[in-house]
C-alpha cells in the first residue's frame, strides 16, 4: 500500500502562499516532533524564497523524551536552530518570540534610524496538516480566533490574526507535496494524523504500526494491551492477540480486524500507547 494525499486545495494553498509571501517578514515552519524528517515538506524552502525562517518541533509532549534529546544534540552539532513547542500549553512560545525578534533585529534597527517605531512584524505559519498551526496562533493570541480540530484539513484559507501589539500571524491550511518518494513517509504521516483517514487502508496501517512498535517500543505494546509477545509471533499474531484481549470478536468467532485497527490508531493519536517517536537522528 502506498499512501499519497495531495488534494486540489493544497495546490491552491501553495499558490496563495506564494502570493502572500511578499507581505511576510518571517516564516514559522511547524514540524511534528515525532517525525522531524518526514513532517518537513521538501517544497517549503523553495516556496519561501529565502525569507527568514524559524523551525518549531511541535507536539513535543507526544514524542518520546529520549528522542527529543537525541534530536536536540543532533541539531546542536549541526548548528541548526530549533524550538520544542506545545501549541496547547504554550511551551516554547517565549523562545519563538525571541527568535522572531532576533531574525528582525536588523530591520527594526534600520527602521529606528529612519524614525519609524513600533513596526508590526508579519509572520506566516506553515506546516503539514494537523501539526498544530491554528492552535499555536490561538494560544499566542489568547483567544480562539482560528478553527482547530484533530483531523487534517481543518483550516481552509489563509487568515490574519493579531497575536500582540507587535506581531501579526498568517494562518495557512496544512500542505503536503505531490509524491512521497519513500512509502514509509506516507505511512508515518498517516500514523500521526496528517493524512485524511478515509483515503488509506486503516488495517494495513495498524498492522505496520504493530510491526514498528514491536521493533522500537515492544514494552508499550505489552503493557498497554496486556499481551505476551513471543519471538516466533508474526505481526498478525500480535494484532489478533490485541483484538482478543479487547474482545473485538464478531459473531461466529472471527476477529474484527477493522475495529481493532480503529482502536489502535485512535489510541496512538491519543498518546495512550505511550510517547512514541517514529524517527531518530
Ligand atoms: N498534544 C498536543 N496536541 C496538539 C498540539 N498542537 C496541536 N494539538 C492538537 O492537534 C490537533 C490539530 O491542531 P490544529 O491547530 O487544528 O492543526 P493545524 O496545523 O491547524 O491543522 P490544519 O488546519 O488541518 O492544517 C488539535 O486537536 C490540537 O488540539 C501540541 O503541541 N500537543
Ligand atoms: Mg489549521
From TrEMBL:
CP-type G domain boundaries: 11-178
| Top-level taxon of origin | Bacteria
Keywords from UniProt, A to Z, are: Cytoplasm, GTP-binding, Nucleotide-binding
- Quick check: keyword Repeat in the entry? no
Q: Which InterPro entries match?
A: G_CP_dom (IPR030378), GTP-bd (IPR006073), GTP-bd_ortho_bundle_sf (IPR023179), GTP-bd_ribosome_bgen (IPR019991), GTPase_MTG1 (IPR016478), P-loop_NTPase (IPR027417)
Its Gene Ontology molecular function terms? Answer: GTP binding; GTPase activity
Main localization, broad class? cytoplasm
Q: Name one GO cellular component term.
A: cytoplasm
Q: Where does the record say this protein resides?
A: Cytoplasm
What function does the entry list?
Required for a late step of 50S ribosomal subunit assembly. Has GTPase activity.
Entry's PANTHER family?
MITOCHONDRIAL RIBOSOME-ASSOCIATED GTPASE 1
Q: Which family does it belong to?
A: Belongs to the TRAFAC class YlqF/YawG GTPase family. MTG1 subfamily.
Q: What protein does this entry describe?
A: Ribosome biogenesis GTPase A
Lineage of the native species? Bacteria, Bacillati, Bacillota, Clostridia, Eubacteriales
Amino acid at each position: 500500500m502506498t499512501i499519497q494525499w495531495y488534494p486540489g486545495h493544497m495546490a491552491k494553498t501553495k499558490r496563495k502562499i506564494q502570493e502572500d509571501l511578499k507581505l511576510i517578514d518571517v516564516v514559522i515552519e511547524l514540524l511534528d516532533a515525532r517525525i522531524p524528517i518526514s513532517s518537513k515538506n521538501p517544497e517549503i524552502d523553495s516556496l519561501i524564497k529565502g525569507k527568514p525562517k524559524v523551525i518549531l518541533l511541535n507536539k513535543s509532549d507526544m514524542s518520546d523524551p529520549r528522542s527529543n534529546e537525541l534530536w536536540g544534540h543532533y541539531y546542536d552539532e549541526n548548528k541548526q536552530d530549533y524550538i520544542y513547542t506545545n501549541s496547547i500549553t504554550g511551551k516554547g512560545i517565549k523562545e519563538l518570540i525571541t527568535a522572531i525578534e532576533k531574525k528582525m533585529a536588523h530591520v527594526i534597527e534600520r527602521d529606528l534610524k529612519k524614525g519609524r517605531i513600533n513596526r508590526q512584524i508579519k509572520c506566516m505559519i506553515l506546516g503539514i496538516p494537523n501539526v498544530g498551526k491554528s492552535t499555536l496562533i490561538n494560544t499566542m493570541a489568547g483567544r480562539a480566533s482560528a478553527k482547530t480540530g484533530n483531523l487534517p484539513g481543518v483550516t481552509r484559507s489563509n487568515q490574519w490574526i493579531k497575536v500582540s501589539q507587535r506581531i501579526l500571524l498568517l494562518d495557512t491550511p496544512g500542505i503536503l507535496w505531490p509524491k512521497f518518494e519513500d512509502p514509509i513517509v506516507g505511512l508515518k504521516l498517516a500514523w500521526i494524523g496528517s493524512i485524511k483517514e478515509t483515503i488509506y487502508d486503516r488495517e494495513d496501517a495498524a498492522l505496520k504500526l504493530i510491526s514498528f512498535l514491536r521493533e522500537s517500543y515492544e514494552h508499550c505494546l505489552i503493557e498497554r494491551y496486556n499481551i505476551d509477545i513471543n519471538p516466533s509471533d508474526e505481526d498478525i499474531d500480535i494484532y489478533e492477540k490485541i483484538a482478543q484481549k479487547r474482545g473485538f470478536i464478531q459473531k461466529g468467532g472471527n476477529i474484527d480486524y477493522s475495529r481493532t485497527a480503529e482502536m489502535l490508531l485512535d489510541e496512538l493519536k491519543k498518546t495512550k500507547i505511550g510517547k512514541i517517536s517514529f524517527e531518530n537522528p
